[in-house]
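Hi all, long-time lurker, first post. I run a small reading group and we've been trying to get comfortable going from sequence to structure in the token notation. Rather than ask abstract questions, I figured I'd post a concrete chain and ask someone more experienced to write out its structure so we can walk through it together at our next meeting. Sequence below, copied exactly:
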Amino acid sequence: MIHNKWSTPIEVGDFSIEGLADHILLNYNMSEPPADNNYNIFNDESKPISDLKQVAYDNFAAYINRCYGVDITKIYKHEMKAWITGHGDHYSMAQHNHMGSWFSSVYYVLAEEQDKGGEIVFVDPRSNANRGYDTRFAKHFEHFQLTPQTGQFVNFPSFVYHHVNRYYSKFRIAIPIDLYLYED
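-- Answer (accepted) --
Happy to help. Here is the structure in token form:
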């Protein structure tokens, strides 16, 4: 019997929320988007942001059920926090994880240029797992890299370290979201 342990499911999917990009552009200062730890755009009760909150929760619930076999809708209370980031030329993000939350995602509301960098790169969470293996095993330890597209999201466990490569374009809207679960 083979036991496939310590898998790290990363899901990439598509979403569409009418009026979301327009709402963000009209209501937020994209020169200094709200991205500090004390700000949560889900406090904005507008229809596009409320729709995003529901879509994100539904996507988290489906992902967790498929990947972990847990129906969070029947077991846990939850809280979600979101902010806007990834907004301009030469933007990048150092390697980090989302400590404290259980699951995280990034929703790419606007990411039109595909050849300008800005890839999100996920790192194998098994620190030093590749030690001693030769290059024939390299594919089992490679980083997972995603070039975001408008209308795309990525879900992942919050413990996974990731970074964003330097972005060489004028504008992008990305919304990271953290999911916190609490025993009901």
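A couple of things your group might point at:
The beta strands are 11-14, 76-82, 91-96, 103-110, 120-122, 144-146, 152-157, 162-167, 173-183.
The CA atoms of residues 75 and 184 lie 6 Å apart.
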